[in-house]
Amino acid sequence: MRKEYAFEAPGRLLEDATRREMLFEDLFGKLEDAYEHSHLVSLVRKHRPDVIIDSINTATAISYQDVYSASIETKKHIDSLLEGIQQDDVAHVRSESEKTDHLMYELLLSQSMPELIRHVLLLHKAMVEVGTRMYLKIGTTGTGGMGLNVPYTHSEDKPSAKLITKSAVAFAHTGLLFLMARTVGGPIVKEIKPGGMIGYADVTCRPFKAHGKAGKWQDRFASHTEMLGRRLVLHQDERDYQNLGTLMLPVVDTGENGLFTRGEFETITDLGQMQFVTPEEIAHEVVMEIRGINNGHDVIAAIDGAVMNPSYRAGYLRPRVLEALTRLEEETDTYSVALGHLGPPELSKLLWEAELLKLTYKTLRETLTVTPEQIAEQVYALMQSSKYEKMCQTIISLGLPILVPNGAQIIRGPYIRIPESIESEVVVTDDEIDLWAEKGWVDLRPRNFAVWQKRLQKMENSRQRIHGQGSAAVTRKVYLYDDIRIGEVVGWIFNNEKEGDRLKYGYRIK
Predict the structure, then answer these.
(1) In this structure, how many other beta carbons lie within 10 angstroms of the beta carbon of residue 231?
(2) Which of 201, 241, 365, 446 is a plausible cystine mate for 372, CB 3.0–4.6 Å?
């Protein structure tokens, strides 16, 4: 959220059309733009923390925007509009247009997953930028450790959809933190997830907010007695009842969970019910984790220990799969290189370019004996030959244009994947050509093959250094083969290629 709106109630933000549009752009627009506007990012940039302890109940904040009520209200309104359109009631449709706008934005902006994903991506990007060493999240189970039969749902149905959404968001958050913990260059990530009610802050006699009446204290009224008839009025005018002042009761203040009376606290903490854990115990566990003392309560570490990792059996079978694919390529006179379904877009581009180098030069060494201009000329000649016409047709049919060595022409099919645009036409500039070629075009220009030669030289150097070093020499930085194996080559690029001081792609660290 933007700094200027950080302390505004969500409902008030939706009242203004300009703010609604800004919220939409921050949530669904470009991540880079949202990053510059984010209040959370500005705080991380300002204070540059070594450790972040995040005790905000993110799951509650996101899930209790109530997408269910927003969906029901929006459907009712759309049904009303459709009825007005069918009856040609133009005045009705026009009068409801502002409400339509408001309800649609409310529905779009109350969705949990887009908000959670954007929150995590913005926070991770900020922590990487400032060099935060550790991020420790105090999360939630959503149901205080109980199951779908939890009877404590803030006066809602059992189990309430909003409460279960809270649990879903809480564990989706854990999943995203699991990914964050496996991201190169990011902070150490831990999560402590209390499985009980957290309490308490104070025991006192005090007033409390009236249910369903924001900002108003609960009053005590003198009672009326009435006969039960066929109809029962649920909400009567309070002015018809004698107001005896603000209602004061002895309560336990449990923080986010609210105020509990003796009876409520005794029930929820009873053996077999939710029970509770104190904030001091949680804080102790947090401090131990920060100090490096493993206490067994880090959820991310537990998931790390429970997930099934790549197996020896799968590694043993890998060459057999590759051999079978190679045999089918030869039998069918086709090229099983890349479909374009496995992102990022660079993957298909890199695989096809590596295949062209393999077909032209076979080995790393031979590719390094010629100039980039010679490579461009020879690869382009190969693409134009009748022998490889079918391969060229395959590439362009998959939506990958081939940029010829002069950079002024492309060989293409009926559609092009990159650039991604909702428009049927885009403006072409030299800068855009360079961007598209890097992202997803098969680029036959000498400048691209100069980049390839730098990569292949690093691979060749790493291969020469492994002799006599034993298993210590076999790392992600080493390319083991003399010949060009396109998957291994692109895997090496993803493992090692950098943009400035940052890894351009990514590799598995666990």
Answers:
(1) 5
(2) 446
